[in-house]
Design goal:
Structural class: mainly alpha
Shape: globular
Radius of gyration: 13 Å
Number of helices: 3
């Protein structure tokens, strides 16, 4: 399943869909207009972490529930 998720076609399709939907910035404050450049720069490390089960999402500390 991870191989399908990380397949270049699926990654490009997901990125394009986020941009088309004009999604709001994430908890890291990264805007959709910055997403493609960020992903292009960090893609190898992100994919390596995902494939080796080392990827952890960033903590969300802005609000207390």
């Amino acid at each position: 399943m991870i191989a399908q998720v990380t397949h270049p076609y699926n990654l490009q399709k997901a990125l394009r869909q986020v941009v088309v939907n004009k999604g709001s910035a994430g908890v890291d404050g990264l805007k959709t207009t910055q997403l493609a450049d960020y992903f292009r720069e960090h893609k190898p490390a992100l994919l390596e972490d995902i494939k080796k089960d080392r990827y952890t999402k960033q903590k969300y500390n802005k609000y207390q529930f």
